[in-house]
Amino acid sequence: MGARAENARLFVPDPIASRGSVKPPVIAALAVVLCACSSSDFHPYVGQQQKLPTSPGTFVDSQYDVPVYYGYPPRPYTVVGMMEETSHGRHSNAVADAAEEAKKLGADAVLVQSHGSTSEPAAAFTNASIAPLGSGAMVTGSTIIARHHTDRATVLVVKWL
Asked: Which distant-in-sequence residues (6+ apart) come within 8 Å of 56 by Cβ?
């Protein structure tokens, strides 16, 4: 029995030999986590247009496809509709995606009604190794937690009068 225990070997993967090989499930998981996609829900305004509020000054971001207002704009406008934009991915920006979609609809600007983001754990990848140590064993390893990022915005799509 003693000889049998002496001949037993513990398999410890060689980190240098396995460097170039990436397992297909890891590639698929990373693709899901790193992929950015978005969805838009547009709801057209129906009915008579009202006299909508304006403001002599507000915050505006003009780096997008159409100007993005974070308050009432300084000029009169009509509401084309409301858009709910959801974007996924580490660098997602629902406001930028909403501005892009609004331009496709022929809008002149968007007014941000709400904007926020969340980040939730989506998957965990663990790598561990066990090595004999005296009468016990030493366990070493690491865990990587992949997060799922979601950015949401609700905007009014507007045309200038």
From this structure: 74
Residue 8 burial class via C-beta count within 10 angstroms: exposed 0-12, middle 13-18, buried 19 and up: exposed
Radius of gyration of the chain (CA): 27
The domain tally of the chain equals 1
φ, ψ for residue 81, nearest 5 deg: 175, -175
CATH number at residue 56: 3.30.110
pTM summary value: 0.67
Place of tokens 């170039």: 20
Express each pLDDT in 56-112 by its tens digit. 999 999 999 999 999 999 999 999 999 999 998 878 899 999 999 999 999 999 999
